[in-house]
Design a protein that fits this description.
single chain, 186 residues, alpha+beta, Alpha-Beta Plaits, 2 domains, 3 helices, 4 strands
């Protein structure tokens, strides 16, 4: 005997479609749940990473500040070491000490030095204690040209000074008689 199927084909298709819809619905719900869980997980990690970034930025600022301070202190240290070496040179006397004695005698309140450099060269290489030839470069200011001229004349009266050359002199502005000058003393 043959079996007779009394359930219509259309009913079976509807049932199969319902099962497929339920399956797709479950998959869709699972996918949404995974997305939500991933978002929660990522948000938690983003919060941690942002906190770490903030902490690292603060540390970077602190380190940068410390680096800048160290660089500044190293520069100041080099200046202080030069000043110490210069003071030690002055304590020994010699040409540098004589130079300051000369300036002490000839400098007056109408002339002042802003920058200067000093170089002493031995006249021969045999004896380091022998007399040295001094070469001094000065940048400064004077109240007027007459004050600068008087300063140069007083320098030339000193026996240790062989030559004074005013390299440049100029009035700073027309309303004032203040003079800027560059000179070399040998």
């Amino acid at each position: 005997m043959r079996e007779i199927d009394l359930i219509p084909e259309s009913y079976r298709r509807v049932q199969k479609a319902k099962q497929m819809l339920i399956g797709f619905g479950c998959l869709y719900a699972l996918l949404i749940a995974l997305i939500i869980a991933g978002k929660i997980f990522l948000n938690a990690n983003v919060t941690k990473v942002n906190a770490q970034i903030t902490s690292l930025e603060e540390q970077k600022k602190t380190i940068t500040t410390q680096h800048d301070e160290i660089t500044k202190l190293e520069g100041e240290r080099a200046i202080v070491q030069k000043q110490i070496a210069f003071v030690e040179l002055l304590q020994k006397g010699g040409a540098a000490g004589k130079t300051f004695q000369i300036f002490d005698r000839v400098l007056n309140p109408t002339v002042w030095m802003e920058e200067w450099s000093y170089e002493a060269t031995a006249l021969g290489n045999e004896n380091p204690d022998q007399e040295k030839l001094m070469n001094i470069k000065i940048k400064g200011k004077a109240l007027d040209h007459a004050s600068l001229s008087a300063f140069v004349e007083r320098l030339l009266t000193e026996p240790e000074v062989h030559e004074v050359v005013v390299l440049k002199s100029a009035m700073l502005n027309k309303s004032d008689s203040l003079v800027s000058f560059d000179m070399e003393i040998m």
